[in-house]
Amino acid sequence: MAKGWNVVVLSRRDNELSDRVRYVWWDGVNIDAWAEEIDGADVVVNLAGRTINCRYTKKNRQQIYDSREYSTQVIGEAIAQANQPPRVWLNASAGTIYKHSLDRSMDEATGEIQSVEPGRPRDKWEFSVDVVNRWEQALFNADTPSTRRIAMRLSMVFGTGRGGVYEAFRKITRLGLSGTQGTGSQFVSWLHLEDFLRMVEWCIEHENIDGPINMCAPNPLTNREFLKDLRYACGAKVGLPAARWMLEIGAFLMRTETELLLKSRRVIPGKLLESGFKFNYPNWPEAVHAIEAAWLDAK
Predict the structure, then answer these.
(1) What's the pTM value of the predicted model, to 2 decimals?
(2) CATH homologous superfamily for 7-298?
């Protein structure tokens, strides 16, 4: 916006935000009038996808697959038929594509992608990997030779927005429930919202960046350290620990999955660091204190 960009949001909602941001109807599945917005656009950023914060039932799994694959495929079709295709297409993805790792960090060059038989994940953790594999295949199989493509392998993004991941963690912290989860040795990859927005702008401006890009802070930390710093920032003196079996019961009651807490995501942004990107918030303690201060100021 600071650069004078006009933003079009493809969405099922239909309301104006400002004179330079407008909504256009999009069902995420079919080519329609919205495709005209792609023709002549400079940049396309696709963040569509059903939330994974749910139980992995057969119905929910299919919706998670479809919402990501169909939206990506149809954007590829719109770009392919455009007379003036966009210069760059950034498509959401996830850092969970990498193996559960306690002993070393995973970047784009050396990170181990978990092996999954296509379409037949054997457990819930492999399901998430399969989702990301199919999501990225839809992106890179698209017939868009004139458009640079980037798969944004995102970690959890923390900001002050209502309904976001920070609000959820802050709530359990204030209730005294943010002690070690499981063993506490699993790694947490995270990213400050401000740095995420700067990454998007950086990738748009640097034409040598393409393919899968890890979008996370350069310093993942253990679940134990992550929650300790969160408690300190929020002024919570108590954090009750939860064994794995407790988390399984809690996840069932909350209609979600323990994978979101127990899988060790030790991901680092190799390509971004090599390109010269500088983080405003490379370390979690400073990031969480800044977010909490902004949260309190916004009240």
Answers:
(1) 0.92
(2) NAD(P)-binding Rossmann-like Domain (3.40.50.720)
